[in-house]
Specification:
The complex is a heterodimer of chains A (291) and B (312). Chain A has 291 residues and is mainly alpha-helical. Chain A is built from 13 helices and no strands. The radius of gyration of chain A is 25 Å and the shape is globular. Chain A starts with 12 loop residues before the first helix and ends in a 10-residue tail after the last helix. Helix content of chain B is 70%, strand content 0%. The longest helix of chain B has 33 residues. The termini of chain B are far apart. The chains are: A mainly alpha (291), B mainly alpha (312). Chains A and B meet through helix 1, helix 2, helix 5, helix 7 and helix 8 of A and helix 2, helix 4, helix 5, helix 6 and helix 7 of B.
Chain lengths: 291, 312
């Protein structure tokens, strides 16, 4: 067997390449394909930025230009004033931050308990949590909107937070169960042997180790709320959030403002996503189980 | 009985302390509750929230859909009413079309990109970052970006005109095949990172010697892919497909921005019906959407998973 060793050394090489002669010929094709894919993935964002930098006349011209011509910051100057963006920005920030905090407070303790359940039960509970994803959001949002109107929670940040939690909690719980279940129970036992009570152990030992997972879950919750249109459109009638602004501008057909608002909505998300990639990698656990 | 107050069993002070606690196993539900009081207190809030804000509304919707508005007598009129509307028929067809067309495109393109990323090449890191980029873009924005492509004066028409494929601009934003196509396209752009990540994780878990053995047996690239990669990748494919199909059935943001009322899908139909004051028929449409998802998932698991188990 070793005499006929296939030269493919990296695990992936054998998959796409096939026989060697085609591998050589396919290389140019591979690069063309990669560039085409990258192009299609980048071009929508380029167009958004381009339109946000153009005048309405340029953006609605019958034959739009491919490249940015005579960029203008007029749209940005007009929309980046407190009168326009202040209220929706405040709502979006408050609701997203509140949702993230409440989601962690509700889900972290429960996720710890689920993570310490026997294997079969744990699997069943996680499956049940993911099962709720099958519910269409409108089937939940319709009665929630009716109820919240009668409770006076429409157009309030609290109401929107409570609604966003519906979608966020299963996801957050799922991430948190994953980050709690990898923490060895030995750590808790040795802490108990040292005389710490259950709660002290949880706060001093378990919580710091789970911190990266909790941070990731909180950021997911924040983003989920920040991006939401569905519950906002159900519950906010007079007030606006940033996604609602994008939707209403799109509905009115104001193309440059839609692009500008879209970029405003996207910037924090892109920054956070970049930040998130760093956090996920940090090996927090490595030092904890030394014995 | 002073010793009854002593709690520590430690000998830290060099004194033998007698542990007076009763270690005999307790029986009965109350004992179980007392033993796990902390766990119960920790888990209850989340499960109560999910019960009251998720399951209760779902049952409320189901209840609304079966009763007359105003009175609460049982009726099927809401379903009859909603199914008789042409807007509902369009929403139903659009949703099925977007799901079928969009998810199959996503699986094919996602598989292609995952296969590319499973190779080692210069610039793989940059390529991976570009592929993951849409993950960081709100779904709503993915739809808004598509507006500039599919509008009457948009880039899709512009490119097709420049290439000489069409002579007159096409009106894309209308119900039917064109509407399904543009919504599925925006959805493809937004969700490609998720599909790639799931499939790539599956690809990377396939041991390399499977291919070595197949190469010795004289299998070609396509044969290897079809007879080895796909069967081994089946769990990842199932996961990606079910996750994506469920979300495609529930599609809302992109359809609202791109199509509004012109291209209705099930979710946007429910919303606009609710906004028009028809809570009960909106609930009926929402229940139909739930049934579509449940039927799909059950059918997929029975047809595809069962068969692949027989083949194994």
């Amino acid at each position: 067997m070793s005499a006929t060793q296939v030269p493919a050394s990296t695990p992936g090489d054998g998959i796409a390449s096939g026989p060697r002669r085609r591998f050589r010929g396919g290389n140019a094709g591979f690069w063309v394909l990669a560039i085409v894919v990258a192009f299609f993935l980048l071009v929508p964002l380029y167009v958004l930025v381009k339109v946000s930098l153009s005048t309405l006349a340029q953006a609605t011209a019958p034959r739009p230009s491919y490249l940015i011509q005579d960029p203008t910051l007029d749209n940005w100057r007009r929309l980046l004033t407190w009168d326009v963006i202040g209220s929706p920005l405040q709502h979006s920030l408050t609701v997203a931050t509140g949702t993230a905090i409440i989601a962690i407070l509700l889900a972290a303790p429960a996720a710890y308990v689920v993570a310490r359940l026997p294997r079969g039960v744990r699997y069943f509970v996680i499956l049940g949590i993911l099962f709720t994803r099958m519910f269409p959001e409108v089937i939940i949002a319709t009665p929630i909107a009716s109820n919240f109107f009668s409770w006076g929670l429409n157009d309030t940040d609290l109401g929107l937070m409570l609604a966003h939690l519906v979608r966020t909690l299963p996801l957050v719980a799922w991430i948190l169960v994953g980050s709690f279940e990898v923490i060895p129970y030995d750590l808790e036992e040795s802490s108990a042997v040292d005389g710490a009570s259950r709660i002290v152990t949880l706060v001093r030992v378990v919580l710091p180790i789970a911190a990266p997972g909790i941070a990731v879950a909180a950021i997911f919750a924040w983003l989920d709320s920040w991006n939401d249109l569905l519950y906002a459109i159900y519950l906010f009638l007079t007030e606006r959030t940033l996604p609602l602004e994008v939707y209403y501008y799109a509905n009115r057909g104001n193309v440059t403002d839609v692009a500008t608002f879209s970029v405003i909505l996207t910037i924090p998300v892109v920054i956070i996503t970049l930040f998130l990639q760093r956090w996920i990698k940090s090996g927090y656990l490595s030092g904890a189980v030394k014995g | 009985m002073d010793q009854g107050n002593v709690r520590s069993t430690g000998t830290a002070l060099g004194v033998d302390v007698v542990d007076q606690r009763d270690y005999r196993p307790r029986r009965g539900p109350m004992a179980w509750v007392r033993k796990h009081a902390l766990e119960i207190a920790m888990a209850t809030p989340l499960f109560l929230y999910i019960l009251f804000f998720m399951f209760v509304p779902v049952f409320q919707s189901i209840y609304f859909s079966f009763v007359h508005e105003g009175t609460s007598s049982f009726t099927l009129d809401n379903y009859r009413d909603v199914m008789g509307r042409s807007q509902f028929g369009e929403a139903f067809r659009n949703t099925l079309g977007i799901t079928a067309f969009g998810v199959s495109m996503e699986m094919v393109v996602g598989m292609g990109i995952a296969l590319m990323l499973s190779r080692a090449f210069h610039g793989r890191g940059i390529f991976r970052s570009i592929v993951l980029l849409p993950l960081g873009v709100p779904t709503l924005v993915a739809g808004a970006a598509m507006l500039y492509f599919v509008g009457f004066n948009g880039y899709l028409n512009e490119i097709l005109l420049d290439l000489g494929i069409i002579d007159v601009p096409v009106y894309w934003q209308q119900s039917g095949v064109r509407g399904m196509f543009i919504i599925a396209l925006a959805d493809l752009w937004k969700t490609i990172p998720l599909v790639v990540l799931i499939l790539l994780a599956g690809l990377e878990s396939i041991p390399g010697d499977v291919y070595e053995a197949a190469g010795i047996d004289g299998a070609g690239g396509w044969q290897k892919f079809w007879h080895h990669t796909i069967p081994l990748l089946m769990p990842s494919i199932t996961m990606a497909l079910i996750l994506r199909a469920i979300d495609a059935f529930r599609i809302f943001d992109i359809a609202m921005v791109l199509g509004g009322q012109a291209i209705p899908v099930m979710s946007s139909f429910v919303y606009s019906d609710y906004r028009a004051g028809n809570t009960n028929t909106a609930a009926a449409a929402a229940v139909i959407l739930l049934m579509m998802i449940v039927v799909f998932v059950i059918a997929y698991i029975f047809l595809v998973e069962r068969r692949s188990e027989v083949n194994r």
